[in-house]
Specification:
- The complex is a heterotrimer.
- By secondary structure, chain A is an alpha/beta fold.
- Chain A has helices at 17-29, 40-50, 66-75, 93-102, 114-127, and strands spanning 9-13, 33-37, 54-57, 84-88, 106-109.
- Chain A has a single domain (9-112), classed as Rossmann fold (3-Layer(aba) Sandwich), CATH 3.40.50.2300.
- Chain A has a five-stranded parallel β-sheet, sandwiched between helices.
- In chain A, α4 links the parallel β4 and β5 (106-109).
- Chain B is of the alpha/beta class.
- Chain B contains 16 helices and 14 strands.
- The radius of gyration of chain B is 23 Å and the shape is globular.
- The two termini of chain B are 40 Å apart.
- Chain C folds into two domains: 41-50 and 64-183, Alpha Horseshoe (Leucine-rich Repeat Variant), CATH 1.25.10; 196-335, Leucine-rich Repeat Variant (Alpha Horseshoe).
- In chain C, α17 (295-308) crosses α18 (310-318).
- By secondary structure, chain C is mostly helical.
- Classes of the chains: A alpha/beta, B alpha/beta, C mainly alpha.
- Chains in contact: A-B, A-C, B-C.
- Chains B and C meet through α1, α2, β4, α13 and α14 of B and α1, α5, α7, α9 and α17 of C.
């Protein structure tokens, strides 16, 4: 995480444009800079290049799913401290468990409340 | 007129009638397909796929991937299968004695660890050498077994599958993200009735593929492949949609089919003695359920697509069609009791006779008839009027059907949107009857010759035919007596000798 | 000569007509799609502004085709969001007569129009459509009934619970659709469901129990625990599964008893439930099943032991008579 940025940077990854739009809008309005990714590979590239302050990831994405992406982020020295919120329709208990096992910090189910997402982002980033 | 001449003229007349009948039937199928497609287009707005995805009650699906020497494509293929949009599924890859490092490629890409995996002993298969689980993907199982053919590999996968439904595909098939959900939807809505569904097979040649997904649909550049695009639209999309509407779907393609697993095990799994295992299994399912008067439905779902590479050379295509011809015969012969038998409803009275007369015997009437007619016209025996009429009902009607297929594609799916692609399809629709169709029949004829020639095969076929006429496949056990078994060498099921896993085939 | 001319001409006409139709549809279709995509791209931001802006911003006046796409975007967004944004979508749709429009379409003669309207009403969050949707649980088209049921779930229509259950029992809507609707309606449906726990029809009892397991809280376990000795096997299976989902420790003894049920499906469900509930007594009862029972119950038992006590399953797998399931479960634990 780099200091000296005016606004915290959030990486948002989802292959569904609707969700990406909603997430980006809410977070931008709440004072964050949002980087968008449409699939897991793109998200991984951005994560490594930009080292965002937080990542909001969908699970069901092409090329690299959210769980695997989370594992990669946790495994890489440069990115492993990035907090991760998984935002997904895949919300059965085994899925939630798998998410936390992979290293996610929080798990938000779809349909989601944008305000709740913002609150959780703020909570995590506020702690740091 | 000499007797020979009269006979030939009669032959020509018979072929004429044949063409009229064939095209009339196909026209009916096309009309049914149009109706179904129209309904399906509307249905998309209220299908409820999201609901099916997020429901905790949606049953799991085991995706079965038989693979023989697929090291080049298996990793991206499996990766894309693992990320299919479906709430609960597992992927079981069975390497059927691959010699090109298929298993090693998988082991490296998915961090596999050799772990014992329990298997039901309902179906006997060739020996399983090892089973692997992935450290990273808890829903991936890889089986390394001795070569036994595609059917054998599928049977091995069936014995391991944990979910109540299995989706059978080819190792190089490319499913779309929601293909699984869409092909399962009718089953989810009527689990007591729907026992199997099949999806559309589309031609992947020319498409842009990324990480095991088709990201841009394009017509192939190869002309044979382009011709097959058209053919698949007519035969694998519209024809099957039509048959499905009559509840007489004779084949669910092995490249993309969903089955109720316990039922498949109950009827004995896949038959290892045929190259058309998908066709034969579908017939066997119909037979089993109709013999027991159980209400059921086997449906074709037109929207979900599976993209597959088609042969681009005459040689490879010929081999494929010859194999399909053999597979068609093997399936029909095994279940010849169903042919023309009212006990088997629309399958026995419509679908199977159709396969026999209009697909299997098509070289006799279509090709032979055409040649004889042309000959007789050239010799002045038949009038020009008649000859033109013959061409009209054979080629002319054929063009109409192929154009109808393109029409349905444009109204229902519109997969080909680039400039000039649809125009090309129209062109191929017109040209198909002037060479490709005849060539296809030549290959079918060669397939028949193959059948006759493999004299031991033919002889053995006859013997096996009589023996197994009555009851299902050797190797099936009463499920009530099922006991688990360790993955140890199973008693040998099929005849000796390795066989390369044949690709999905069956009538089209 | 005549018939050939006729047939030939007819074919020529038919084929040419088809080519023309193909050309028209292909050209027009692509244009329509592109036009649609452009509209979506243009209206995305205004739609989100309206849905989630601070403060929510009314979109500029929209032309007819724009309004259609805007409504479509709202319906799509509505499927992704809860809370304030969803309420705003409802308000907008009401204010602009979209709900009335769909209610009218719900009475259309065409089944697909009715089905689409029923579906859209759920997306719009239009609570006042509930009575109309309940009526259409009786529609003559199966797809309309299913769409209406789904939308009642989306709308959280607690009052419609009896009607939905009725529709399911009469097999007018698919089980999957009805159950999900009840799940969507949520815990409020549990009270109504529990009254049906004694219904004479075993499939009804089984469905009730299943839904209570998914919706209910710990307190509801007591209400269904008795169903473990129901005469119908599907009910016993559903009860065991539900008790597992509810984490009902007090049912442990009964579940252990159910491990000896003569129906393998019941044993499987009981084993799965005990895997989550755990406890020494449970594990002791599960191990013999894992070694010697039929495939499904044995596997469930092995996995249950692995869940309840991973160290134990690894040890148990080393025994010579452990059987394939314990070995697989131990292998998975080691991953």
């Amino acid at each position: 995480m780099t200091d000296g940025r005016e606004q915290p940077v959030v990486l948002a990854a989802d292959d569904d444009d609707d969700v990406l739009e909603l997430v980006t809008f809410r977070l931008e309005r709440s004072g964050y800079t949002v980087l968008q990714a449409h699939d897991g590979e793109e998200a991984w590239t951005l994560a490594r290049a930009e080292l965002p302050d937080l990542a909001v990831l969908d699970v069901m994405m092409p090329k690299l799913d959210g769980f695997e992406l989370t594992r990669r982020i946790r495994a890489d020295e440069a990115t492993r401290r990035i907090p991760i919120i998984l935002l997904t329709a895949r919300a059965q208990d085994p899925d939630v468990q798998q998410g936390f096992d992979a290293g996610a910090d929080d798990y938000l189910r779809k349909p989601f409340s944008p305000q709740e997402l913002r609150a959780r982002v703020q909570a995590i980033l506020g702690r740091r | 007129m000499s007797t020979l001449e009269s006979a030939l003229v009669f032959y020509s007349h018979a072929a004429f009638v044949y063409y009229v009948a064939f095209n009339a039937i196909y026209l009916v199928l096309m009309v049914l397909a149009s109706l179904e497609t129209g309904e399906e287009v509307h249905r998309r707005t209220y299908l409820g796929l999201d609901e099916a995805f997020r429901s905790p009650l949606t049953p799991g699906i085991s995706v079965l991937v038989p693979a023989f020497n697929e090291a080049a494509v298996i990793v991206p293929s499996v990766r894309s299968l693992l990320s299919l949009h479906y709430p609960r599924h597992e992927v079981i890859v069975v390497s059927d004695g691959s010699t090109d490092g298929t298993v090693a490629a998988l082991a490296q890409a998915f961090d596999l660890v050799a772990t014992p995996v329990a298997a039901r002993d309902t179906l006997a298969t060739a020996a399983v050498r090892a089973t692997y689980l992935s450290r990273r993907y808890h829903n991936l199982v890889v089986v390394d077994k001795d070569n036994g053919g595609r059917s054998d590999a599928l049977n091995a996968a069936l014995c391991i599958a944990r979910h109540p439904y299995v989706c059978v595909i080819d190792a190089d098939s490319l499913l779309e993200e929601d293909s699984l959900l869409k092909v399962a939807k009718p089953v989810l809505d009527a689990p007591d009735l729907l026992v199997a569904t099949g999806g559309t097979i589309r031609v992947a040649n020319g498409c842009r593929v990324d990480h095991g997904r088709v990201v841009e649909v394009r017509l192939p550049t190869n002309r044979l492949a382009k011709m097959q695009v058209l053919e698949y639209l007519r035969a694998f999309l519209d024809s099957r949609t039509g048959w499905s509407r009559l509840n007489a779907l004779g084949i669910i393609s092995g490249a993309f089919g969903l089955f109720h697993r316990p039922l498949v095990e109950l009827v004995g799994g896949y038959w290892t003695e045929t190259v058309g295992e998908d066709f034969e299994l579908t017939l066997r399912l119909h037979r089993h359920l109709r013999e027991r008067d159980e209400p059921y439905r086997i449906a074709f779902v037109a929207d979900p697509a599976c993209w597959t590479e088609v042969p681009e050379s005459f040689g490879a295509l010929a081999r494929q069609r010859r194999r399909w011809q053999r597979g068609a015969w093997e399936g029909m012969w095994r279940h010849r009791r169903m042919m023309f038998n009212p006990r088997f409803g629309a399958v026995g009275l419509l679908a199977m006779p159709y396969f026999l007369v209009f697909e299997f015997l098509s070289p006799v009437f279509a090709l032979g008839g055409l040649i004889v007619t042309a000959l007789l016209f050239a010799l002045g025996v038949l009038t020009a009027t008649y000859f033109i009429g013959f061409i009209a009902v054979s080629i002319g009607l054929g063009i109409l059907l192929s154009l109808a297929a393109v029409t349905i594609e444009e109204f229902g799916y519109q997969r080909y949107r680039r400039r000039g692609e649809v125009a090309q399809l129209v062109g191929y629709a017109i040209v198909e009857g002037f060479g490709f169709h005849q060539l296809h029949n030549v290959w079918r004829l060669m397939g028949c010759v193959d059948l006759l020639r493999g004299t031991t095969g033919w002889g053995a076929q006859q013997r096996r035919g009589f023996e197994t006429e009555a009851e299902p496949v050797p190797g099936a056990l009463d499920p009530a007596l099922t006991r688990s078994r360790d993955p140890e060498p199973a008693p040998d099921a099929g005849p000796g000798g390795p066989r390369p896993a044949p690709r999905a085939g069956g009538g089209g | 000569m005549n018939w050939v001319v006729l047939v030939g001409a007819a074919l020529l006409v038919a084929n040419t007509a088809l080519v023309a139709v193909i050309a028209a549809q292909s050209w027009y279709g692509v244009r329509r799609l592109r036009g649609h995509d452009e509209l979506v791209a243009r209206l995305r931001r205004p739609a989100v502004e309206m849905v989630d802006g601070d403060p929510p911003a009314e979109p500029p006046p929209l032309a007819r085709n724009e309004a259609r796409v805007f409504a479509e975007l709202l319906a799509r967004y509505s499927r992704q969001v809860r809370g304030g944004p969803q309420e705003r979508i409802v308000a907008y749709c009401e204010a602009h007569g979209l709900v009335d429009q769909e209610l009218r379409r719900l009475e259309s003669r065409r089944a697909w129009r009715r089905a689409r309207a029923a579906f859209t009403l759920g997306d719009f969050g239009a609570r006042r459509a509930v009575p109309a949707l309940v009526r259409h649980l009786d529609d003559r088209s199966a797809e309309v009934r299913a769409a209406a049921c789904r939308s009642l779930g989306n709308l959280g229509a607690v009052d419609a619970v009896p009607a939905v259950i009725d529709a399911r029992v009469a097999a007018r809507v698919p089980g999957a659709v009805a159950k999900l609707a009840l799940l969507d309606i949520g815990p409020a449906a549990v009270a109504v469901l529990i009254t049906l726990a004694d219904d004479e029809e075993p499939l009804v009892r089984a469905a009730v129990v299943q839904l209570v397991g998914l919706l209910g809280g710990a307190a509801d376990a007591a209400a269904i625990q008795g169903r473990l000795s129901d005469p119908a096997a599907p009910v016993r299976v559903a009860t065991a599964t539900a008790l597992g989902r509810l984490g009902a420790r007090e049912a442990r003894d009964d579940l252990v008893t159910a491990l000896a049920d003569r129906v393998p499906g019941v044993r499987t469900a009981a084993a799965e439930a005990l895997g989550g509930i755990g406890g020494r007594q449970a594990v002791d009862a599960l191990l013999p099943l894992a070694r010697t029972d039929e495939f499904e119950p044995a596997r469930a038992a092995a996995e249950a032991v692995a869940r309840a006590d991973p160290a134990l399953v690894v040890r148990a797998a080393e025994a010579p008579d452990a059987g394939p399931h314990l070995r697989e479960a131990a292998g998975r634990v080691a991953l």
